[in-house]
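[Meeting: bench + compute handoff]

Bench side (C.D.) handed over the final construct sequence. Compute side (W.E.) agreed to return the predicted structure before the next meeting so the bench team could plan truncations. Sequence as handed over:
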Amino acid sequence: MPTNIGKNESGFSIIEMLIAIAILAVGMLAITRMQLVTVRNTTNGNTTTQATMLAQAKMEEIKNTQDITALADETESDIDADGNAGGIYTRTTTITVPAAPLDQFLRTVRVQVRWVTHHGGDRTVTIDSVTHGQGI
């Protein structure tokens, strides 16, 4: 009868396996959390870029107006990145007439685009400019 049964056996005990699984699980949770944060930041960046382009489009439209005396304040609510209805953005355009004698020639323009993020944070992009109209 063999007398060395069980003496040369090698392998992992159940406790060693449980510790290895726990370490792996913690690592996987950290990677998952990092992935979620990356996706959220990418979404926020895309939304901010869309809001900036929406503000720039309105500013270009105003700067290309032939008659600047016809410019007026405007608020567009619930618009999308293309300026169409059904989006998350509110675009507010404020036209200010400077003091005389510049009041005939110039207008100060402020375009603000606001939105609420998926996490409830209020964000704003603002562009300010002075225009003479006719693309200037």
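W.E. noted at the follow-up: The beta strands are 74-79, 89-96, 107-116, 122-131. C.D. will use this when planning the next construct.
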